[in-house]
Prior knowledge:
- The complex is a heterodimer of chains A (135) and B (137).
- Chain A is mostly helical and 135 residues long.
- Helix content of chain A is 53%, strand content 3%.
- Chain A contains 3 helices and 2 strands, in the order αβαβα.
- Chain A has a two-stranded antiparallel sheet.
- In chain A, helix 1 (2-31) packs antiparallel against helix 2 and helix 1 runs antiparallel to helix 3.
- Chain A is flat and about 65 Å long.
- In chain B, 44% of the residues lie in helices and 24% in strands.
- Classes of the chains: A mainly alpha (135), B alpha+beta (137).
Amino acid sequence: MLSKLDAFFAPDEAALKLRGMRQEVIASNIANGDTPGYKARDIDFGQAYQRALSAAQPARLQMTQTDPRHLGGNPKQQLETDLLYRNDLQPSIDGNTVDMNTEMANFADNAVHYQASLTFMQQHIAGLRAALQTQ
Amino acid sequence: MSLFGVFDIASSAMAAQSIRLNATASNIANADSATSSTGQPYRAKQVVFSATPLYANQPQAVGVKVAAVSEDQSPPRLVYDPKNPLADGNGYIAMPNVNVVEEMTNMISASRAYQTNADMMNTAKTLLQKTLQLGQA
């Protein structure tokens, strides 16, 4: 039963975690808006979410180890995602590629999406609660 | 919970920006200090930021730290004032190499960056509060 509950909430949980992570990445960009040489970064939410949802299948690209000294490779963990670099629009002369407008827009966008994910989860909880209650 | 990282990132940036604001304040305050404790005219101080990862295993959280406070090495501003006791043989005194216009720009930039980071903290706080209310009817 508990594992079913877990699976029921897994998509919401993954979305919230990834949104939280993306919020952190964009916050880093805004915080480093004046740091020389800093390159703005971001994650591809869609791709990371798909990966998190398909993580149910085990042993993705896990290398076979027939000896304890073999390297295990570096398979991506469930919520691990690639930190990408943003294509610079107007790089500064000091090598900084943070575009404050883009970052602020992304920050607000991601915050709204986080709240949307929260609402979806709230709906799932409400549905579950309705099913549990005696009428 | 990764949203807490936003607080750490924003606070590191706010600390760095306030140091920059301090340096700017010193520069503007000393724009006319022809001499100092070293006997030399005051030199403008510039704060150098560097990006620093906040947690060992989380490359996505990058804060700001002050890498160095460097002194502006450009030559002092020479002002002709033969009556001044600090004047050299030709009647010139060396004044600080502070560019007040540059410092004002720095000040505006630092205070705006500080505000942006404070806003960012507020957003993260709102999101976390909503998360805490999750599941309450």
